[in-house]
From TrEMBL:
GO molecular function, one term: proton transmembrane transporter activity
UniProt xrefs under InterPro entries: ATP5MG_metazoa, ATP_synth_F0_gsu_mt
Lineage of producing organism: Eukaryota, Metazoa, Ecdysozoa, Arthropoda, Hexapoda
PANTHER family reported in the protein's UniProt record: ATP SYNTHASE SUBUNIT (PTHR12386)
Record-given protein name: ATP synthase subunit g
GO CC term, one of those recorded: proton-transporting ATP synthase complex
Keywords (A to Z) from UniProt: ATP synthesis, CF(0), Hydrogen ion transport, Ion transport, Membrane, Mitochondrion, Transport
GO biological process terms held by the UniProt record: proton motive force-driven ATP synthesis
Protein localization: Mitochondrion membrane
Family affiliation: Belongs to the ATPase g subunit family.
Biological source species: Panstrongylus lignarius
Length: 94
């Protein structure tokens, strides 16, 4: 049992260090400066939709935008499931 545990620890240790390194940067809440950038980003999206600039995206840019939108949607649904403590619908007591 100890040999297996030792092997698991040896395997996980470098990966955990990498995870912690990136988590300190990527998983922090937005700073006040970044929050103002969000409103600028939304304004850019609206302007792009109005002017037709979105038609000039490369396939790569469009694909990356789709992936980001999919990720945001998935996190929304995961948050909904966590918030209601149920996978299917809300429990309504009548």
């Amino acid at each position: 049992m100890q040999a297996v545990l030792k092997k698991v620890i040896e395997t996980v240790k470098p990966n955990l260090a990498t995870f912690v390194k990136y988590a300190k940067v990527e998983l922090v809440p937005p700073s006040p400066g970044e929050i103002s950038g969000i409103s600028n980003g939304i304004k850019n999206i609206i302007t792009s939709a109005k002017t037709g600039k979105w038609k000039q995206l490369t396939v790569r840019e469009a694909w990356l935008n789709l992936l980001v939108a999919t990720e945001v949607t998935c996190w929304f649904y995961i948050g909904e499931c966590i918030g209601k403590w149920n996978l299917i619908g809300y429990k309504i007591n009548v």
